[in-house]
Amino acid sequence: MKIAKVIVDVPTMQTNTPYSYRIPNGLETQLKRGMRVVVPFGNGNRKVEGFVVDIEETDAKQSPQLKEIDRTMDLVPVLNDELIKLSKWLADKTYSFQISCLLTMLPNAMKAKYATYVKAIGPIDDEDISKKFKASDMIPFDSEHFDGPEMGKLAKLRKANKIKVVYKVQNEAKKKQETAVVNQINDFDGTQKQIRKNATAQLNLLEVLQKNPKQPLVQSHLVKDLGISNSAIKSFEKKNWLKKIQVEKYRDPYKHEIKVDQPKKLTKDQEDAVKEINRSIDSHQNDTYLLEGVTGSGKTEVYLQTIQRALDLKETALMLVPEISLTPQMVNRVKNRFGNQVAVIHSGLSTGEKYDEWRRINSGDARVVVGARSAVFAPLDNIGIIILDEEHDTSYKQDDNPRYHTRDVAIWRGKYHHCPVVLGSATPSLESRARAGKGVYKFLRLPKRINQKHLPEVSIVDMTQEEETHDGIFSGELLKAIDQRIDKNEQVVLMLNRRGFSSFLMCRDCGYVLKCPNCDISLTLHMDSHTMKCHYCGFEEPIPKYCPHCHSKNIRYFGTGTEKVEKQLHELLPKARVVRMDVDTTRKKGSHEKILHEFGDHHFDILLGTQMIAKGLDFPNVTLVGVLNADTGLDLPDFRSSERTFDLLTQVSGRAGRADKDGEVIIQTYNPENYVIQLAKHQDYEAFYQKEMQLRHLADYSPYFFTIKVSISSLNEKQAASEAYDVANYLKGSLNNKTIILGPTPRPIARMKRRYYFQIIIKYKRDLKLNQSLKHVLQVSQKEVRKGLRIGIDPEPVSFM
Ligand SMILES: Nc1ncnc2c1ncn2[C@@H]1O[C@H](COP(=O)(O)OP(=O)(O)OP(=O)(O)O)[C@@H](O)[C@H]1O
Ligand SMILES: [Zn+2]
Ligand SMILES: [Zn+2]
């Protein structure tokens, strides 16, 4: 007898293991590992969903009491063996439930709230089934409409391509048609001779056709994105050099189907890196590389050429980038090189678009995947290379269950596929840099910018010395520099660092920031009530008149929003054309792309934005970068706040002077002597690394120690506190004596949304009992969990707030 092992969608400790179910007649040959099923569960036999993670042969006598699978939700597996295996590892590694991991891997469109249908797409020879399709070609795929044996027939019909499964998404767009052109030219050289030398529009069109001789090219993209004239297309059509066809409009958010970019000739450093990585690809070696390259050193070209190598070997490629730098610029660079083979996954896509992309990957149509964090689970087969760009970025860590780090998952998949993993950054995480130093990762460096360009000159402006003008936003020096750049017809990027803050009060004499006495977080100014409020605990006090630290009267509103800065700019430099990029101006779909496009076309002189603009942008005409407030991230209660500030300043500085013209950076700060600011001035990552490693060593922090955060919360403060003490005591008794256990303490933000939080920080080097002990904690706290306690285990937390 065959049984299925099913992970059910009941996320508790007790159910975090596969349950056995009998496979009903008719499904025996159809049911596959990786399909979703509906099964009866518990005493009441309520129906729950689950994933088949294994199918086994057993002796019927041994398991007479087994319940039977109700039905399948899929006709083909939605997860392959690799991903099922990965989910088990991930659950273990992140102390979460395997079901959460399995669900994390699927696009939302396939999650329960969306209806599943079967759709007839060919003649159906089975009488029973074909009768059902008489009324409609789409029928809900459930037990009301199909019984067990019929489900088996459906699977056969799907194999024969007579039906398909459709997940109906609420906002699914109707399919539309659009006009495309297809090349008809065989002899390109001969054709070129027939075109006048000064007919550039026609020559451009010819070039695009030559690069894409077989592919339909959507006319509107040719015109809008490549500047090819409609009249050129018309005259080509008349001469039968191309023909027009109608194609199905695809929900491609970037609408870029045309390859226009050729590989660049590599510099010596790039070539060394590419050779080394390609060697691993060719020999299927699972090496992890750290590619440390200064800003503008051409890391992207290294990625593109190694991806090409994997494709040449008929393998696929996975490229991960932080959400924030998943800009149209980056996406277009990959799409321009690899065309339609690229699938893009990020949070800006609609559910339907994400599902489309997922399906293209699952079916093997898309062979290069570019995406943010969750794309690390893309169902690619046969991966030849995995790239993690800006590997230090904190958005790679998921805050919620399962609390995985994208880098760990990428490395796991690299091992599975025997392929190299490339971690790239101008400012690698200390952890990765340390591993490269020890030889765990192979170290590749691009120490110079492309074309012998040097890094931009950085100067620091001490804002405590500035006269009280311009609301403390602009120093005289920065204003003058902006003015000069505009006169020279060059462009400026201005960053307002808003990390961790909205609007706060700061003393202009000593730099003191007014903080909440309970939460260790800065208070936010509320003009309506004329008070300072804590956004987390609700603490409130009147706006002070004197600095509590140095008693200066010079205490003022700071950390203004980009909107206010924009207004200031208009007053101070009326001629400047400013475009603002922040959460407000990019909320609408496509607006991000539009702003960057218009800035690139020099419709604006100044791009003003938050951290959003620090990464990945490549505008040749930008020669000045200004950082309005370098300090705001430095004070956060987090041992990584220096590292983050250094990264941010280095990344944003790197936006200046990337092409022919020299770049300049001006950083305004209230802490000009701080080592982070000083080292950022020299853009000296290696010096920063050495210095910061010393500090981490002294304080027993990562990468010298691993960290785990255990957080315990409840609406009832007493319950949370007493459980936290119990857990800490248990851990102190069970873990080895070199492991450091801090706490329990109320979390820096102790109370959030009415729950009281306590946290325990575990710092360890090697502790064989750790995993077991933490699982034990999860087990024994079950009773309290039923009474409303929550307990979370976060390995390598990126936030301690
Ligand atoms: N071999 C090359 N020859 C000519 N130009 C190149 C070459 N490699 C890269 N470039 C160009 O140099 C510029 C900088 O490269 P790229 O954006 O890849 O750098 P990066 O290291 O990714 O930078 P950042 O970390 O700042 O984003 C780009 O405009 C790119 O097209
Ligand atoms: Zn507070
Ligand atoms: Zn002061």
TrEMBL record:
Binding residues annotated for Zn(2+) 1, in chain numbering: 507, 510, 547, 550
Keyword annotations from UniProtKB, A to Z: ATP-binding, DNA replication, DNA-binding, Helicase, Hydrolase, Isomerase, Metal-binding, Nucleotide-binding, Primosome, Zinc
Matching InterPro entries: Helicase/UvrB_N (IPR006935), Helicase_ATP-bd (IPR014001), Helicase_C-like (IPR001650), P-loop_NTPase (IPR027417), PriA (IPR005259), PriA_3primeBD (IPR041222), PriA_3primeBD_sf (IPR042115), PriA_C (IPR041236)
Listed EC numbers: 5.6.2.4
Required cofactor(s): Zn(2+)
Domain Helicase C-terminal, first and last residues per copy: 542-699
Catalytic function, reaction form: ATP + H2O = ADP + phosphate + H(+); Couples ATP hydrolysis with the unwinding of duplex DNA by translocating in the 3'-5' direction
Helicase ATP-binding domain segment(s): 280-446
UniProt cross-references to PROSITE patterns, sorted A to Z: HELICASE_ATP_BIND_1, HELICASE_CTER
One GO-annotated biological process of the protein: DNA replication, synthesis of primer
GO cellular component terms attached to this protein's record: primosome complex
Source species, domain of life: Bacteria
Entry keyword Mitochondrion: no
Cofactor: binding details: Binds 2 zinc ions per subunit.
Class of enzymatic activity (EC top level): isomerase
Annotated Zn(2+) 2 binding sites: 516, 519, 534, 537
GO molecular function: 3'-5' DNA helicase activity; ATP binding; ATP hydrolysis activity; DNA binding; zinc ion binding
Function comment: Initiates the restart of stalled replication forks, which reloads the replicative helicase on sites other than the origin of replication. Recognizes and binds to abandoned replication forks and remodels them to uncover a helicase loading site. Promotes assembly of the primosome at these replication forks.
Subunit description: Component of the replication restart primosome.
Entry similarity comment: Belongs to the helicase family. PriA subfamily.
Protein name: Replication restart protein PriA
Organism expressing this protein natively: Fructilactobacillus fructivorans
Lineage: Bacteria, Bacillati, Bacillota, Bacilli, Lactobacillales
Gene encoding the protein: priA
